[in-house]
Amino acid sequence: MNYRGPLRVRIDEKPMPEILHPQDAIVRVTRSCICGSDLHLYNGSVPDTRPGMTFGHEFTGIVEQIGGEVQKLKVGDHVLVPFNIACGKCVFCQQELYGNCHESNSEATAVGAIYGYSHTAGGYDGGQAEYVRVPYADVSPTVIPDGMDPDDAVMLTDVVPTGYQAAEMAGIQPGDTVCVFGAGPVGIMAARCAWLFGAGRVIVIDCVQYRLEFARNYAPAEVYNFKELDDVVLFMKKTTDWMGADVCIDAVGAEAAGNAMQSLLGRKLLMQGGSATALHWAINSVKKGGIISIVGVYGPIDTLVPIGNVLNKGLTIRANQASVKRLLPRLIEHVQSGVLNPKALITHRVPLEYVSDAYRIFSAKLDNCIKPVLLPPSVRS
Ligand SMILES: NC(=O)c1ccc[n+]([C@@H]2O[C@H](COP(=O)([O-])OP(=O)(O)OC[C@H]3O[C@@H](n4cnc5c(N)ncnc54)[C@H](O)[C@@H]3O)[C@@H](O)[C@H]2O)c1
Ligand SMILES: [Zn+2]
Ligand SMILES: [Zn+2]
Known about the structure:
6-stranded parallel sheet, Rossmann fold, 2 domains, 28% helix, binds zinc ion, alpha/beta
């Protein structure tokens, strides 16, 4: 696919990617997903998203070619490729902060590189394509275990680790009430994973009814439509004996709806790094001394949040891009043992050529879409 400007993506011929470094591999894509993170690019809210870029940071594929220094992968391997591009050697990779690699992204000092995620995240083309160049091929790409469904494998490149890390960062204690804002794929997975950490009650809040129904059955969770609540924060207090949730998870990020001023400043005028409505609600709905876990993505510029309440309530905020490689061993086990069933989130299987329709359906939340996967021609014969 080829980004042409806000709300415009189309299919195009591009030159075959080539090995540019001895640690590169070229992968023939077998699955690629569209993510809520791609919607920030699609809507034009990520700085330095250049026309011509191929998006796609969630993909699996067959290794077609390897550079001279690649040792762990061989041609023909079917791999799942974590969305973080990480060198494996820098001081942050050494701490397993693979989302914060200091080497892979020469454009920024905050985030490491991400496939297909603008020049702010390194300028690498992504996997919503037939072929993709995979740098540092020995570090993160992981051979799909025998017997694993490729639909499960592609969900392990982002959604599963991000949902899991959202719950992990929330420091859930046995019996805790967990409130997840956002019933997209990431929020649904975070709610599901909250139980693995011992939650006693899991609440999911969104405004898209079919997604709430999905979360109710899949997580499972208590679900509420914020359009039917007069005041989300007041509701959260009422339903928790006026204490607030023990932890709140922001699985919405920059495109949040629900507050006209935040939407105007963060989504229309792009005067802040996104609309912080869900984060605002999270901070005000959590109990004193509670934890806020943020996986929803915001841009690099300032954003209006009630920092005074964070201070006066004594909150802990934990946030990051998911460190996919760190979490993969235990999450592969969870999928293999049936504890997690991520492919159940895939609602749409779309030929790669119809990528612009897939973006429109996912973005506008049409046709009960939770997660679309794009299938290149080579896997459809
Ligand atoms: N940290 C990471 O590593 C990481 C990885 C993947 C995705 N993400 C981010 O996680 C977020 C969710 O991703 P997704 O794929 O589930 O996206 P999505 O766009 O499919 O889902 C977001 C959901 O939030 C809902 N929403 C909007 N405003 C809300 C509000 N005020 N309160 C509650 N819900 C609200 C929307 O209706 C939608 O269902 C995005 O910001 C994405 O960029 C982060
Ligand atoms: Zn993603
Ligand atoms: Zn690194």
